[in-house]
Amino acid sequence: MGAGIVKEESYMRLTKWTIGLTTLVLVASACSSTSSTAAPTGGGGSSDRSAISIEVVTHGQASDPFWSIFKNGVDQGGKDMGVKVTYSAPDTFDMVKMGQLIDAACAKQPTGLVISLPDATALGPSVTKCVTAGIPVISANSGSDAFAALGILTHVGQDEAVAGRAAGVRMKDAGGTKAICVNQEVGNAGLDARCNGFAEGFAPGTSTVLQVDLKDPTTAQQKIAAALTADPTIDTVMALGPTGSTPTIAALKDMGNSSIKVGTFDLSQEVLAAITDGSMLFAIDQQQYLQGYLPITFLTLYKLYGLMPGGGLPVATGPGFVTADNVETVKANTGTTR
C-alpha cells in the first residue's frame, strides 16, 4: 500500500509539472508564430519547419468522439508548429492492421512518429524497426508502462492504473460495494489497467469485468441489463469510455433503475448530459487534445533544438474529474478541445 501511495504522489507531482510544461509549450508556440529566430544550436540543423513531416498512427478512428478530439490536437499542433502531419488508424481495433500502418508510416522516413501503444507485444516489432531506423518515436494515450523498453523517447498520456484507482476510491466513497467494469476491448493494456486499477481503489468492494462488443450497441445494452438483472446487489457500473457508458445509461433507463451509480472514462456530449441530469456521477478526463497536440510540439522541438521533456517518465495529461460542479465549463469547449 505504501508503494502505491508513493507512486500516486509522484504521479501527482509529475502532473503539476506537466501543467507548467504545457503552459510553456503553448507560449513558445505562440511566440514562434509571430517572430523569426536565429538558426538552432540544438538537435536539428535547418530551421525550415516546412520540411518537417510527422506521421501519427493510433488504434482509434478519427470518427470516434474521443479520437476526433485527439486528432483536433494533432491538427492544431501541426498548424501551430508549421509542420506537416498525417493521421491514420485501422478501421477497427486490429493490431495486425495497426502494425502494418506503422510499417508504412516508417517507410516514408518521416521526421518523427507518434503512436498509441495498446499492445506492446503485438506492435513492438514494428516500433522497434522504426526506432532502429533512426526515426524518433513518441507514444501517446496508451503505452505508459511499455514505451521505455521499446526505445520510445517519451509517452504523453494518463497512467491508466492511477486513474482507475482514483475512480474506484471515488465510487467507494459514494457508497458502492459491488461493481461491474464494462470493457469493450479486453486485451487492450490501457483498458485492462483501468479495470484493474478500479478494482484496487474500490476494495474492499468487489468488481467484475463485463466484456461487451460496442460495434453492436444494442447487444451491449442487453448484456449490461442482463448482468444487472441477474445480480441485483450490483450498485455500481464503471465504463471505460462513452461507447460503454451510453448503453449503460440506456439500460438503466429501460429498467427504471436510478439508484445504480455510474461513472466513465472520457467525455462525449452524451456523457456531459448524463452528468448534468444526475444519471452519472463523474467522468474522467484524460485531456486527449493534449495527447494529440503535445507530441507534435515535442517532435518539432526535438528536430529543431534537440529538446525532449519527460526525463524517462511519462508526461501526464490526466486524470481529471468532470462532475456536476464543473460540467458547464467543460461543455463550453465540447467538440474542440474536450
Give the SSE map.
Elements: H1 2-32, E1 53-57, H2 65-81, E2 84-88, H3 95-107, E3 112-115, H4 120-132, E4 137-141, E5 154-157, H5 160-173, E6 178-183, H6 189-202, E7 206-211, H7 217-230, E8 236-239, H8 242-255, E9 261-265, H9 269-277, E10 282-285, H10 288-305, E11 315-316, E12 320-322, H11 327-331
Parallel strand pairs: 1-2, 1-3, 3-4, 4-5, 5-11, 6-7, 6-8, 8-9, 9-10
Antiparallel strand pairs: 10-12
Strands ordered across the widest β-sheet? 2-1-3-4-5-11
Question: Total number of β-strand segments?
Answer: 12
Kindly state the mean pLDDT as a whole number? Answer: 88
Helix content: 40-55%
In DSSP terms, counting alpha (H) and pi (I) runs of 4 or more, how many helices? 11
Task: Report Rg.
Answer: 20 Å
Strand count, sense and barrel status of the largest sheet are:
6 strands, parallel
Strand content: 15-25%
Write down the overall geometry.
Answer: elongated
Uncertain stretches of 5 or more adjacent residues:
1-19, 26-42
- The termini sit apart by 34 Å
Helical/strand content category: alpha/beta
| N-to-C SSE string, H for helix and E for strand | HEHEHEHEEHEHEHEHEHEHEEH
